[in-house]
Amino acid sequence: MRTETRMETTDTVAQALRNNLRASWGRAYVRVIGVNRELSWLFLDIVMPLFSIAAYVLLYRSMNAPREYDGFVILGALMTAYWLNVLWAMAAQFYWEREMGHLELYMMAPISPMAILFGMSFGGIFQTTVRAAATVTMGALIFGVHFSIANPLAVLGIFFLTLVALYGLGMTAASLYLVYGRDAQNLSNLLQEPVFLLSGVNFPVKALGFWTAATACFIPMTLGMDALRQLVFDDKTTGFMPVGWEVLGLVVTGAVTLIGAYKALKYLEDLAKRQGRLTLKWQ
Amino acid sequence: MAMSETTIDKKKEGFGPLAPLREAWRSFAPATWLGWQIESNWTDPFTFAVFNLVRPLSGALILVVMYLVATRMNTRTDLFAQVYTGNAMFTYLGGVLFGMSWVIHEDREHYQMIRYVYIGTSHLYWYLLGRAVAKFLVTTLSVVVLLTAGKLFLGLRLYWSVIDWPYFLTAFSLGLIGATGLGLALSGWMMLMARQAATVSEVAAGVFYLACGFLFPIDVLPTWAQAVARWIPFTWWNEGMRRGLFGHGNSQVLVSLSNGTILNWLAISTAVFGALSLAAFFGAERLAKRRGLLDQITDF
Question: How confident is the model at residue B298 (pLDDT cuts 50, 70, 90)?
Fold first, then answer.
């Protein structure tokens, strides 16, 4: 009898895991397959950041800045693409899902909403990587930026850790949209330029001064950008702190944001249900 | 019966040359009010003010830090003043372009009321212009704070006594007309596309940010790009506003042109640009109507 119960439990857990994995893949699939569905969008998404890259690079050149700074702008554009994806295709996505009537379907399905968020993250990372890689390659070629990467594995590792922490943050922010509407969209709007400033997307973050830079380290992008800048250009002088410390910071923020996402999702889903706002459109 | 009701209606509305303007005002004024409500009523005034100031201030501070790390000079230079004010004035262009085109998407898919606006007595563009005014007011608040903060905290070299107000206001108004025209054209484009059309507005704003010398003189651009820039009214707008504010521009290739010539070019290019934009808007509107896209819900 006890063996049967244990087997049933194992079956149930395995089934739940299968369901959640299928849901994750289902949600990611839309974004993976959607990468080249609409070529005009792909073109715009690749070309649009090139204008801001060109504007900032030419600004630096008009001020006779060292050529290394062109590379900072390119690297900044790469991380900007992920941050914008986190804000609008992760955090704000639940808002659009509610407007389209998908949100209630997710909630009714025998899966955890976390599975949907994981799927969105995976799809979002894939989608953004395709676009950002093209933008960065073109930007680097046009402006003749030279990268001197001594340790590619370390670069990839830090990049991966940064993405985990960033998308964890996006998953946490997504839960806000279960309750809020237009006001949460404004929050996403608000988290663009201030985060670009604090994380030093176009300049070494230590230029902000010690205390501001230290406070900015609570944003995963700051740590990731600073570490990547040191490794990609093999220049420790621009770094705010040693890369090892930044890796540790990224691991901690990654764990905190993922746990935070789980807790926030539970709490805000419950709150949204109690207040009857889970499926309330046009807020 | 119907005849007498029409007569009564006409008596209420009035006749004469001002009747179409009164009709337009009936759409324009509520649209301005509605635009202001949508911009501001989602929160209390304090949060609204913070929201509208933090973003542009942060954007400006990015440039300030870039300037400081690149030049290692202080901010009391002409170069800094040109970069800082150029960026501040650009917020008008970005705000109007994106704001006007987004109205179509918002009213069509989010509030789903564009069909009611469309079947009203005035043309849709009066409604869009009204909504643009709200965006203009919010942007003006940001620009005033940006310039004041620059003057007070960064030593921005902008002096009240140097500003040539009539010249500045003329240039500023002409440029705004061009921006509004382009906003209408992008709104027309939005009628034919889903949410992604917003990217087109951002691309357009990005092109002008880059090509029209808002951040750096157009001299930095390749020769062919400088030639393109001379066809865009916002290049002349930017140069005109700088001359109005500082008494001189920041471009060596335009330095030989007199203030009057700059204004002339601005007026001519705005007229051409405005006419093309209006034609694009009406063309897109006709196409959207023929294809049944005016009130489409793309769910995207």
Answer: confident
Nearest to A79 by CA among A232, A260, A183: A232
pLDDT of A94 reads 83
Q: What is the pLDDT of residue B1?
A: 46
List pLDDT tens digits, range B184-237. Answer: 999 998 898 876 667 788 888 888 999 999 999 999 999 999 999 999 999 999
Tokens 């801001």 correspond to A52
| CA nearest neighbour of B51 among A19, A234, A184 | A184
Q: For position A224, what pLDDT does the model report? A: 95
* Residue range A193-214, pLDDT digits in tens: 999 999 999 999 999 999 999 9
Domain that holds residue A261: 2-275
SS3 label, residue A14: helix
* Alpha helix stretches (DSSP H) within A144-219: 152-176, 182-190, 193-198, 210-216
How many contacts (CB atoms, under 8 Å) link A and B? 105
* Two structure tokens written together for A253: 């923020």
Q: Is the pLDDT of residue A2 over 50?
A: yes
| CA dist., res. A59 & res. A52, Å (int) | 10
B7 falls within a domain: no
Cβ neighbour number for residue A123 with a 10 Å cutoff: 25
Chain A neighbors of B42, CB-CB under 8 A: 182-183, 186
Q: Provide the whole-model pTM.
A: 0.86
pLDDT tens-digit map of B63-92: 999 999 998 888 888 889 999 999 999 999
On whether any CB of chain A is under 8 Å from the CB of B253, the answer is no
Answer whether residue B24 is part of any domain: yes
Domain count, chain A: 1
Please report whether residue A35 resides in a domain: yes
Domain that includes residue B245, residue range: 19-290
* Domains contained in chain B, number: 1
Q: Give the gap in angstroms from C-alpha A182 to the nearest C-alpha of chain B.
A: 7
Does residue A280 lie within any of the structural domains? no
Most A CBs within 10 A among B41, B47, B62, hence the mutation to make, goes to B62
Q: Do B217 and A62 touch (CB under 8 A)?
A: yes
Contact B210 A65 (CB under 8 A): no
Residue B273 falls inside a structural domain: yes
On whether residue A112 sits in a domain, the answer given is yes
Tell whether B221 is covered by a domain.
yes
* Dihedral sign computed on CA atoms, order B166, B98, B276, B88: positive
pLDDT at residue A81, as a whole number = 92
Whether ipTM tops 0.95, in short, is no
Task: Tell me, yes or no, whether A281 lies in a domain.
Answer: no
* CA atoms of A30 and A272, how far apart (whole Å): 26
Q: Residue B106: what residue type?
A: E
Q: Which residue has the tokens 């739940």?
A: A16
